[in-house]
Design brief:
single chain, about 260 residues, 7-stranded parallel beta sheet, about 15% strand
Length: about 260
C-alpha cells in the first residue's frame, strides 16, 4: 500500500524526502532522479543541498515543460530547474533534461523523451506534487492512466493557478509537454508531497478515493513503492490518518 507520512512542518517533509532520495541514488553508479518544479518540492531540494553530496553523476528528468515560451524565459521549467535544483544541488546541467529540450520536432518530442529515460536505465525516484484538480505532472483529469510523455492542453484551472508566475493569465501557455501517468508509474520509487488545506481534497481522492482518471494522482495506488508526505492541513480529509501515523512510526518493524 501507499505509505503516508503526516508531518508538522515542510522542513520535516523535506528531510524525509531527502532520506528517500539518498537511499534511491545509492542503488546505481549513475542514478536517475525525476524532478518536479514549483514551490512544493523546494524543502526537498533545500534538505538535499544541506547534505553537501557529490551529485555530479546523477541524471535528471523533469516532469514537464511549457510549450511556446521563448528560449531563456525565466518561467520556463528549464530555467526553473536550473535555478532551483541544478545550481543548489551541484548537478551537471548537461545531464539534466526537460521535455522537448533537444530541438527536434514537437510532434515527436514525447517519444524522444521516453527513449532518453529508457537509455538512462529508467528513473530511480520521482518527486511529485499534486494539483488542486488531482493532476500530477500536467496530466489533467481525464488523462489515460497508461499515458506516456506527450503534448497536452492545460485546463483553465491550472492556467489560473500558474498565472501568479506571469504578468497576466494571457501570458500563461495553453499547452505543455508532460510525462504521462504510465511514465511516472515506471519510476522505481514515487514521492508525492502536498502542503496546505487547499490540497486536502486532492490528497484524499488520490490516496483513499477510487482509481480513476478523474483524479490522475489516484494512479499512485497502483505503484509498488509510493510514499506520500503531507502536513496536517493537507491530511485533514484522510479518513484513516490515525492508522497512517501508526504505520509510519512502525515502518522499520514492518521491513525488518
Amino acid at each position: 500500500m501507499t505509505e503516508i507520512a503526516i508531518v508538522k512542518t515542510q522542513a520535516e517533509a523535506g528531510r524525509i524526502a531527502a532520506d528517500l532520495i539518498v537511499a534511491a541514488l545509492a542503488t546505481r553508479d549513475e542514478p536517475t532522479l525525476g524532478l518536479a518544479t514549483g514551490s512544493t518540492p523546494l524543502p526537498v531540494w533545500s534538505a538535499l543541498a544541506e547534505r553537501s553530496l557529490d551529485l555530479s553523476a546523477v541524471r535528471g528528468f523533469a516532469l514537464d515543460e511549457y510549450v511556446g515560451l521563448p528560449p531563456g524565459h525565466p518561467e520556463s521549467y528549464r530555467a526553473v530547474v536550473d535555478r532551483d535544483i541544478v545550481a543548489p544541488l551541484g548537478l551537471n546541467p548537461e545531464r539534466v533534461r526537460v521535455p522537448g529540450d533537444d530541438e527536434g520536432p514537437l510532434t515527436e518530442a514525447g517519444e524522444r523523451y521516453e527513449a532518453a529515460i529508457a537509455d538512462a536505465g529508467g528513473i530511480d525516484l520521482q518527486i511529485l506534487g499534486i494539483g488542486r484538480t488531482g493532476h500530477i505532472g500536467f496530466n489533467e483529469p481525464g488523462s489515460s492512466l497508461a499515458s506516456r510523455t506527450r503534448l497536452k492542453a492545460l485546463t483553465p484551472a491550472t492556467r489560473a493557478d500558474n498565472a501568479r508566475f506571469f504578468d497576466s493569465i494571457d501570458d500563461v501557455p495553453t499547452h505543455c509537454l508532460t510525462q504521462g501517468i504510465g511514465t511516472i508509474l515506471d519510476a522505481r520509487v514515487l514521492v508525492l508531497l502536498a502542503f496546505g488545506e487547499t490540497k486536502a481534497p486532492a490528497v484524499a481522492a488520490a490516496v483513499e478515493g477510487p482509481l480513476t482518471s478523474s483524479c490522475p494522482a489516484s494512479a499512485i495506488q497502483l505503484h509498488r513503492r509510493a510514499v506520500v508526505i503531507v502536513d496536517e492541513a493537507a491530511a485533514a480529509r484522510l479518513e484513516h490518518r490515525d492508522y497512517y501515523r501508526f504505520a509510519w512510526d512502525h515502518r522499520e518493524i514492518a521491513t525488518a
